[in-house]
Amino acid sequence: MSNKGEISPENYANWFALYQLCKHIEYRQTINISSVEFGKFLNLSQQTASRRISDLEKLGWIKRKTEKKIQKIVVTREGSDVMLLMYKNLKEILGRIVILGSVQSGMKEGAYYVAIKGYFKQFQDKLGFLPYKGTLNLELNDTNIDLLREKLKYIKPVIISGFEDDNSERTYGSVHCYDCFISRLDNPEKKLKAAILDIQRTHHEKNTIEILAKPYLRDHFNLKDGDKLIIELNFSN
To answer: How much is the pTM?
Structure first.
């Protein structure tokens, strides 16, 4: 590892080998594995896999005990620190990747849910703004929706609790909200605080998300169908 806290280029292969070990250790403290098995994980020969394990041991990223052809491997504190460093670096990079959504007309489904009293008061209290009683539909391409879903795994959602309507005896499920900022692609400096609504009961296609904000977004950003918006997730929570 370099002095700047980065993996040196000559150790990229060793880092990937460490990653594969950690991936297969999962929640256990150790892993019993042969060089042949490890080679299959890395798609390498047994000899090259054996050298990788030796390199990891020399770097101090693992400790091992060998019994016959099986090696008992433990990831050391230094090895854990390497993984943590790469996690932080990758998370930072992921957070900078731009996600774009295309404005689409909806079926007013978001407006229906937002206006429900049991939801509306919670949106105001938990999101920190009085929302417009409606949402903006954004359609994402396959790459962007996959990237968004991956990013959301690392963000703690604001949970709008489910409830039962005493009058209709209908049950409404919980809604997960994710803080974000949105802006026009042609004017990225003009950002607006908003929230992505993850509504369980929805008829939208999997690539369509709903955005909730204080103003009527079509007027605020002068939007028409097909316009592009940047979605910037808030990782500070």
So the answer is: 0.59
Do 35 and 84 have their domain in common? yes
- Asked whether residue 22 falls in the same domain as residue 70, the answer is yes
pLDDT tens figures, 61-113? 999 988 777 789 999 999 999 999 988 887 777 666 779 999 999 777 777 88
> Which residue in the block uniquely carries the two structure tokens 């604001």?
158
What are residue 40's phi and psi, to 5 degrees?
A: -65, -40
User: What are φ and ψ of residue 160, in 5° steps?
Assistant: -90, 115
Q: To 10 degrees, the CA torsion angle through 115, 102, 193, 118?
A: 20
Residue type, 89: N
The secondary structure of 146-179 as a DSSP string is: HHHHHHHTTSPPEEE--EE-TTT--EE--EEEEE
32: Cα separation from own chain's centroid: 31
> Domain residues for 39?
9-90
Q: Is residue 114 located within the same domain as residue 227?
A: yes
Size of the chain, expressed as the number of residues it contains: 237
pLDDT per residue as tens digits for the range 198-223: 865 554 567 899 999 999 999 999 99
Integer Cα distance of 215 and 212 in angstroms: 9
How far is Cα of residue 66 from the mean position of the Cα atoms in its chain? 38
